[in-house]
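Sorry to interrupt, but I need a hand with the structure work. Could you add the entry underneath, on a fresh line?
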Amino acid sequence: MKHLRYILCFLLLLGGLAGYAQNADLETAYNCVQRGSIDSAKTFIDRAMKDKTLLNNAEAWYIRGFIYKELYKKYEVGNIKTKYRDTAIIDLFISTKLDTSSSNKDNNYSTIKFLAATYYNDAQPLMDSIHYLSSIKLYKKYRDIMKKMSLGNSLNVSDIEFYNALGDIYSNQFFNSATFNTERKYLDSAKKAFDFVLEVSPGNYHANYSIGRLYFNHAANIINNTPFDAPISTVDQNQDSCVHLARLALPYLKKAHELEPCKLEPIIGLKGCYYLLHDPDNFQKMDELEKKIRNHEPPCN
C-alpha cells in the first residue's frame, strides 16, 4: 500500500508526459514507474538522460530523482555508502533550479525531505567512539540539504541533540587521553561541539556544564602530572596555566549552577575553581551549599 501511495503521488505530480512523447526512453521509464518496475525504469531513464534536449527539462530530472529514490528504498536503506540516494537528491535539486515555480519546488522538496531524513537516521546510531566520524559526515549532509531548502531554522532541536552527543564523544576521549597533546586536541574538539549547541541554545545546561568540567579537569590533570621534583619554573608555569583554565571554566560552571542550582556537579566544579583562584569566600559558600544538598536541607530538600 505504501508503494502504491508513492506511485500515485508521482503520477499526480507529473500529470502525464504527452509533451515529451518524442523521447521514447523517457516515456517508457515513466510507464515502468506506473507498473512498479523500478529496475527497468532505471535502464530507460539513464538512457533518456543522454538526450541533450532533456538536460533543461525539470520533469525529466524529477522522474530520474524519483526513480533513484525508489532504487535507494529497494536496495540501499541502511547503507551509508549509497549512491542512489545522493544521485536522487542532486537530480531533484536540478529540477527545482530549472523550474522555480512553488508547485515544482513543493513537489521535489517533499521527496528531498524524505531522503534528508534518512541521512539523519543513519547518523544517529553511528554516534559512538568508533564510528563518530561517519556520523559527522552523514549529519553534515542532512544539514546541508535542509539549509539548501531554506529550512535551517528547523535544525535547532536536532543540532542540540547531535552536537551535545558529539561533544560527549570528544569529552570521553579527553578523559582517556594518554598525553597532554591529545588531551588538548580532544578538549578543543569537544568545546567546539558544545559551542555549537550554545550558539543555538545559550541556556543549555549540558553544554555549559560540560565545557566548565573540561577546563577544570584539564587544570587538575596538569596538577596531578606535575612531578614532585619539578623545577620551580615548571611549577610556576603549571600553576599559571591552572589559574587560567579555572578562569575559563568559571563562567560555564556558574551558568550551569544558575540553570540547575540544586545539582551537585557544578557546585563541586565551582569549589575546585575557587580553590585554584585562591578565593576562600566563594569556596566556603559552595562548600556550605554542597553540604546542605547532601544533607537534604533547604533550599534543595
